[in-house]
Amino acid sequence: MKQFKRGIERDGSGFVVLMAEEAEDMWHIYNLIRVGDVIKASTIRKVVSETSTGTTSSQRVHTMLTVSVESIDFDPGAQELHLKGRNIEENDIVKLGAYHTIDLEPNRKFTLQKTEWDSIDLERLNLSLDPAQAADVAAVVLHEGLANVCLITPAMTLTRAKIDMTIPRKRKGFTSQHEKGLEKFYEAVCVAFMRHVNLQVVKCVIIASRGFVKDAFMQHLIAYADANGKKFTTDQKAKFMLTHSSSGFKHALKEVLETPQVAARLADTKAQGEVKALNQFLELMSTEPDRAFYGYNHVSRANQELAIETLLVADSLFRAQDIETRRKYVKLVESVREQNGKVHIFSSMHVSGEQLAQLTGCAAILRFPMPDLDDEPMSDDE
């Protein structure tokens, strides 16, 4: 996602000027826009004109419209958002109050204005602007002369650097040129790795290559970090995993991630964290039901007793048409975080999110049993 301008006041009102660059960005925008928000974007309107003789002609005209959103339709296949609403700024082509549908798609600039940007909105916005924050797996795929440094988020793979260098071939009596070329190549990959990979955030680093290239690179990386005063700790060294890949091209990463050893190692990353939390909740429901509750009333009551260890929330609840409904879930998330509880926001596009939605979309794992909560009534919706 690209941000051109941001003007959010202290009271939470304000606007941002954005442009989606990837398919993933459209999902973030869908979660940001709600009924009542104001969208300003360039659109195409059909204009019918009549001549003095009574004949009519129509043409499609580009115009800038400002619409108060009344309905939102997201097409994940085509990666398009259809926003229907009334025009609130009159221009030469569209009358004030006339209905129009604005279609948002990747690489189309727009302005989003809200009366209130809450903490969930801002968290989603900042995450979409810097997807590297969500990347908890880094990977370097390489062969002699080519390397790709990538960050892997739950939804996509970002290539942060590509190093492509010509290395002299080994010739009898002239191996020094080959060795110097390799040294220079490894140095360039080390520089790119240290610049783009934050080992404080990343939980696992995959280094994959043919033969012994990965081992030689790992030795260079450790030496480079030592020489630049960024010596790896024992915990950081434990994050590295060396494995085989067919080449240094980015597409080789797919086969690397599918190998059983790598899949097992990645089981604890953010991409799997939500599934793990949901499985733990379902297990507790059968083994320790007094520590696993779902439904807003039960979860809210547990939160009042400072009992929530892990909160599970479906992102569909933050897209509620009713502002008060959204607000109460935002307050719940903020409250649990203030009490050092973990919060997992599940995407309704994932299987785990669909499963959580069947349990009202809101569930909690408690720090201690609360058998009295069963006496608390559930709402009609739940």
UniProtKB/TrEMBL annotation:
Keywords: Cytoplasm, Metal-binding
A GO molecular-function descriptor: metal ion binding
Cell compartments where the protein resides: Cytoplasm
Domain of life, source organism: Eukaryota
Gene3D superfamilies the record matches: 3.30.1330.30, eRF1 domain 2 (3.30.420.60), Pelota, domain A (2.30.30.870)
A biological-process GO annotation: ribosome disassembly
UniProt main location, coarse: cytoplasm
Residues annotated as signal peptide: none
Record-level GO cellular component terms: cytoplasm
Matching SUPFAM superfamilies: Dom34/Pelota N-terminal domain-like, L30e-like, Translational machinery components
Domain eRF1/Pelota-like N-terminal per the UniProt entry, residue ranges: 1-130
Cofactor(s) in the UniProt record: a divalent metal cation
Family recorded in the similarity comment: Belongs to the eukaryotic release factor 1 family. Pelota subfamily.
Function in brief: Component of the Pelota-HBS1L complex, a complex that recognizes stalled ribosomes and triggers the No-Go Decay (NGD) pathway. In the Pelota-HBS1L complex, pelo recognizes ribosomes stalled at the 3' end of an mRNA and engages stalled ribosomes by destabilizing mRNA in the mRNA channel.
Name of protein: Protein pelota homolog
